[in-house]
């Protein structure tokens, strides 16, 4: 486990996500929770492997909201806490995040959120969580490479400790899944009372550190009218953090490798992975322009930005997805330099991730420099290769049974988040809607209420635990009759085989004795329930046919483990 | 390696499960052993399930972006022929294509034949090297999956990658789990023998 190497000054190659883990270890993290989701998964998976060895508490929680709430509890009890999730996870836990920013953290707390521009591993929508960071006013840092992933995570813990507020690290796929050499510092042992008290991480300590919840209702209870005082306190805190941001070295103006000392009339402002594309572009175009790289997304170092733009004629803002920085810089220019031309989304696409040639092309246009990509002239096409279920995947058997049981044109098929999203690929084509975690059942209820059509939904077991249960209860409570097929492969397969609450005891990654889905379904009041192994095709086909004609909601639990589970 | 900018850009393409990320890790470690700057990029999750998988490896001096720009690849290693062609936008006439002579069929569509792929690749670059790596590995070692290890080793012996074979060997020993190491070392040796024969 090279990630635990305790040789300060030495460099090792780390994935962005691993570098975040290393940063947390160097900061002395004590409590970690997560729900797996690409491109954030390796943060949790790495902690899962090393937690016991280094004496850190780690859990895969039932969903991101529960993960954050667990983290809030740990923070209230004084522990140094990290919570990790993918972009959509932040939506799920937003309800808990808002109040947490008000109460603030007691134990320093860092929330890592990984966005996925271009939606490589994200159905649903192309989300930028920067917008949510602004809504709840959580201080947010944006690293661009693995070294910064480590350094910014440590800095985030320091900011959280200093200002008693949770701090967010926002990465994207190309940061989280970027590898590069990272310079190590000392790992701080979680049991260390004093900073810099070190223990070799090879020492297995077994016993975890315990915090203490000290009653302080004024601090932890967001009951009106106190809640409005809390908001005022937050705004005052943010002002102080902004002053910190003004002085922070992670917001840095440079020209090439030199400090920004130039009379150039053209400048570039950027952040995150686009910074790397900007530097690549300047090299490619042989340009020497001042570049302001922002490590802080919120609060922005407004004076530093105004200082950067005050003598410029025009500035290009290079950012992915929504133009948050561009809007802020436009606003700041009104005071600092009202004639400044602020360009951004007119040259940089708002849809899809940025790529080096896109940024190079934008900078070339912006500076009237020649740049042309030649090989667009080749008329070359290779047939598209869709992802597909693994050979031997138990979901193939569900698919083949459905094809035999019903006329697929006559039935509406609901999809949900997991490997079975691939039911929507052209080869299978039994997915008529797909939205967010757990929504297959919620939307099914609405369709059943609104139409007379027959409907089958698919939902994986981890997704069912995550967000499917309230929707199932709603079908019973408000009486609709979809057929729900719970695909019980006993793991969270798509994100890398993480355990979930239903993973049976004895599985290497099981956290408990395995909560039985059938008991939960029955307890919700579902009368039509069958637990089947889809290898028995005839039985499965008959069950689908029978249940599709029921007046009340029906559930089939298709129980057959993922082929990759190693018992 | 581009002498002027002193950097090497390599893309590995194939279908999910052909081991692109492992190959990326080996090459990154090998470059690291030689004291070079490194940046890589890869994709995980849904994108890995049997679809097209493309990873980027860059090393040398002054490496910022983890992604390679269009037309800037020095070497495109194709573990499958149609996937090699799909990466054409990263190629220029200076690019070398090192391609495993294998077609993994895509269901329900008209697939390209090996000849069609080759003809198209040659439109872009004359440096197309087709190696029946999976067949060689199957015949000599009884395993097709190590074709990627065979090809990066071969590329090193034939100076298609500016990394020493000894660095590749050390990196293989570091990255490959104990259980599969012997097979991978045999693959490296096989590439060594074959590279001296042709």
Write out key terms for the chains shown.
heterodimer, A: about 575 residues, alpha/beta, Rossmann fold, 3 domains, 20 strands, about 40% helix, globular, B: alpha/beta, Pyruvate-ferredoxin Oxidoreductase, domain 3, 6-stranded mixed β-sheet, 6 strands, about 20% strand
Descriptive account of the structure:
The complex is a heterodimer of chains A (567) and B (198). Chain A has 567 residues and is α/β, with parallel strands linked by helices. Chain A folds into 3 domains: 246 residues, Thiamin diphosphate (ThDP)-binding fold, Pyr/PP domains (Rossmann fold), CATH 3.40.50.970; 126 residues, Rossmann fold; 166 residues, Thiamin diphosphate (ThDP)-binding fold, Pyr/PP domains (Rossmann fold). Helix content of chain A is 38%, strand content 17%. In chain A, strands 3-2-4-5-7-6-13 form a 7-stranded mixed sheet, with helices on both faces. The longest helix of chain A has 22 residues. About 2% of the residues of chain A have low confidence. By secondary structure, chain B is an alpha/beta fold. Chain B has one domain: Pyruvate-ferredoxin oxidoreductase, PFOR, domain III (Pyruvate-ferredoxin Oxidoreductase, domain 3). In chain B, strands 2-3-1-4-5-6 form a 6-stranded mixed sheet, with helices on both faces. The relative contact order of chain B is 0.16. The chains are: A alpha/beta (567), B alpha/beta (198). The interface between A and B is large, with 51 and 52 residues. Chain B: InterPro entries: IorB_Oxidoreductase (IPR052198), Pyrv/ketoisovalerate_OxRed_cat (IPR019752), Pyrv_flavodox_OxRed_cen (IPR002869). Chain B: Its EC number is 1.2.7.8. Chain B: One of its GO terms (molecular function) is indolepyruvate ferredoxin oxidoreductase activity. Chain B: It comes from Candidatus Nealsonbacteria bacterium CG_4_8_14_3_um_filter_37_36. Chain B: This is Indolepyruvate oxidoreductase subunit B.
